[in-house]
Every structure is written in structure tokens, then in C-alpha cells.
Q: What sequence folds into this?
């Protein structure tokens, strides 16, 4: 059986991979690896880099055929803080695919907390008065009135990765 290593044990992220690969011939192995970026990425660039590094490290650590990294972050545009999310898929032949997901405006008090150097996960717990938002519906769930939870959002990214990867395998890759 071939293995997909997922560079996290966060249940919302692992569920996103299961939603795409569950029931297939792939064995899914969640494995905690460092993202190599700050605990709270503050730009698209840093968030994408974290996703790629998680994918590469998970591939190596689990000796898998495919590694997937999913990273949540925030980015600032025109003074407004946005939730941003990136994913990456790597294989043993050196193909790397990356894709970005949904963006969503964060309320000003969350933005102020980020500027004070705090992590979104912690700010979301304060905002909602509930624990572990990041492994459940996520900020995206809270700020879409429950319509799109974190697993659904990341599963969209995983589909973007897999679809591009299938084409790269057929036609040859371009580098991201
Ligand atoms: O165990 P890992 O995989 O690291 O899962 P994580 O929840 O920490 O997720 P990230 O490292 O990808 O996210 C970076 C930071 O942003 C927070 N974060 C990102 N997206 C979030 C969301 O949708 N809801 C709550 N917190 C989120 C997260 O808690 C971290 O503080
Ligand atoms: Mg984290």
C-alpha cells in the first residue's frame, strides 16, 4: 500500500486529506513536523513556504510516496488582516505542487491582536470563548457563520493539489 504523509496531527487538516483520499488505496499517515516558519505566518509567502516545508519533511520522516503540507496564516492587504491558507504536495521524484485557498477578512480586534504578536489560534479562543477552534471549525468556520469549516476549506486545497499533480505526472511539471 502506498503512503501519503500529512505534516500535522491537527484533526481538521487530516480530515481534509481523508475527505479526498479516504477509501482509496492510499494509507494516510499524520506526522508532526516543523513548518520551518513562524508559529504564526504573517504573509502569503511565509504561509506557502511553511506548507512546502511541512510536505517535504513529512515525506522524508514517513518515507512516504507523497507528502502533503497544509499551513494556515494571515496576510495584510491595504491595512486589513486576512486569513490565508496554503497547501503543498511533493513526491519522491522531486515534483512540488502548491495551491492557495480561501481568503477572508478578520475583524479589527483580531487584527490588533496579531499586530501585538499573538497567534490566531489563541485569539480565536478568546473571541469565541471556546477551546481548540483550530482543530474544529477554525476561524473560517466562525467567520462564515458555520458554512465552511476548516476541514472543508483545506479539502478544497487538497483537491487543487491533487488535480495539478495528476496533470504534472501526465504532462511534466512547471516549477512553483
Ligand atoms: O498543528 P498544526 O498543523 O501546526 O496546526 P495549527 O492549527 O497550529 O495551524 P497552522 O500552524 O497552520 O496555523 C498557524 C497559526 O494560525 C492559527 N490558525 C490558522 N488558521 C486558523 C483557523 O482557521 N482557526 C484558528 N486558528 C487558526 C493556528 O492556530 C496557528 O496559531
Ligand atoms: Mg501550528
A:
Amino acid at each position: 500500500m502506498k503512503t501519503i504523509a500529512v505534516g500535522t496531527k491537527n484533526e481538521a487538516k487530516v480530515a481534509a486529506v481523508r475527505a479526498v483520499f479516504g477509501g482509496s488505496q492510499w494509507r494516510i499517515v499524520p506526522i508532526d513536523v516543523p513548518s520551518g516558519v513562524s508559529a504564526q505566518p504573517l504573509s502569503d509567502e511565509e504561509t506557502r513556504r511553511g506548507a512546502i516545508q511541512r510536505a517535504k519533511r513529512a515525506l522524508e520522516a514517513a518515507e512516504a510516496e507523497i507528502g502533503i503540507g497544509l499551513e494556515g496564516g494571515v496576510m495584510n492587504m491595504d491595512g486589513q488582516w486576512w486569513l490565508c491558507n496554503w497547501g503543498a504536495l511533493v513526491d519522491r521524484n522531486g515534483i512540488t505542487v502548491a495551491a492557495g485557498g480561501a481568503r477572508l477578512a478578520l475583524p479589527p480586534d483580531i487584527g490588533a491582536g496579531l499586530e501585538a504578536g499573538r497567534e490566531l489560534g489563541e485569539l480565536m479562543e478568546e473571541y469565541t470563548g471556546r477551546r481548540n477552534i483550530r482543530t474544529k471549525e477554525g476561524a473560517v468556520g466562525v467567520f462564515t457563520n458555520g458554512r465552511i469549516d476548516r476541514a472543508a476549506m483545506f479539502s478544497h486545497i487538497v483537491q487543487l493539489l491533487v488535480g495539478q499533480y495528476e496533470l504534472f505526472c501526465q504532462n511534466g511539471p512547471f516549477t512553483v
